Amino acid sequence: MSMDGPVSVARSLGGGTPGAERGGVPVFELDGLSVDYGSFRAVEDIDLAIGANEITAFIGPSGCGKTTVLRCLNRMNDLIPSARVHGAVRYHGVDLYGPRIDPVEVRRRMGMVFQKPNPFPKSIYENVAFGPRVTGHQGNLDELVEHSLRRAALWDEVKDKLRQSAYALSGGQQQRLCIARAIATNPDVVLMDEPCSALDPIATLRIEELMIELKQDYTIIIVTHNMQQAARVSDRTAFFTVDIKETGARTGRLVEFDDTGKIFTKPSQRATEDYITGRFG
User: In what order do the strands lie in the sheet with 236-244?
Assistant: First the structure.
């Protein structure tokens, strides 16, 4: 993702040490972010700054653009031919949509965990080892796989069956495997899109506990429809809503972004209070 050819990626991104920006430059700064899918404007004029080693939750009704904004952070929207991103998305002060930025390197730095567990049709070991192999990991792969599985609180459950299919795991175990796979490439940020929506309450609790542990080393951003989950795990919460145009088009916008405690107890916007208390959405 070098901005000037094959020079140091870390230098061109202003570092890359997780937590280095605590109290300083935010990990992400969104300035006037808007996203179009063809002629449809999905989100409009988003301003947001996300701090290091925090869990930031995106909440709001369906169709308000939470996932669209999340996918802007690792340039996943590039994979949609009709998508157009306007405004600025800065990562450690560097414009992620600058002309010399390599989107593949962007995605390496942003681990992604999806709504439904999606292990590869491979063994447990190969699921974790796949990313490091692709990115040219030179160290001891066995140690890296074990470390990643330990970080995902899964090692003790799978250490004797690493060569078995990942599909043999339970849904909650598969999601933790996907988290291990995401952190195996040593990202700076972990993006989670509804990571617990397909899981039972016990598996959900394990994932939430894991997120709280992982924020010591990673910046975590989670999209969730579960407001109780946002209140339990996040440090800061962004509430999005939907504006309905005269044409009937629905465009997402950011209403409020603040400390989670304030969002859930004393929001500054009436729309936020109405959503939190169930009066709409």
Answer: 94-95, 83-91, 28-37, 40-50, 250-259, 236-244, 55-59, 219-223, 189-193, 110-113
- Identify whether 31 is part of a domain: yes
For 172-219, write each residue's pLDDT tens digit.
999 999 999 999 999 999 999 999 998 999 999 999 999 999 999 999
pLDDT digit string (tens) for 113-151?
999 999 999 999 999 999 999 888 889 999 999 999 999
Q: What's the CATH code of the domain at 78?
A: 3.40.50.300
Indicate whether 23 pLDDT > 80: no
> What does the radius of gyration of the chain's CA atoms come to, in whole angstroms?
19
Say if CB 166 and CB 155 are below 8 A apart. no
Asked whether residue 29 is assigned to any structural domain, the reply reads yes
List all residues 6 or more positions away from 142 whose beta carbon is below 8 Å from its beta carbon. Answer: none
267 in Cβ contact with 273 (< 8 Å): yes
Distance CA 64, CA 252 (A): 4
Residue 43 domain-assigned?
yes
Q: Is 97 helix (H, G, I), strand (E, B) or coil?
A: coil
Q: Is 139 within a domain?
A: yes
Identify the domain containing residue 230 by its residue range.
9-276
What single-letter amino acid sits at 168? A
Residue partners of 204: CB distance under 8 A and separation at least 6: 172, 196, 229
Mean pLDDT in the chain?
89
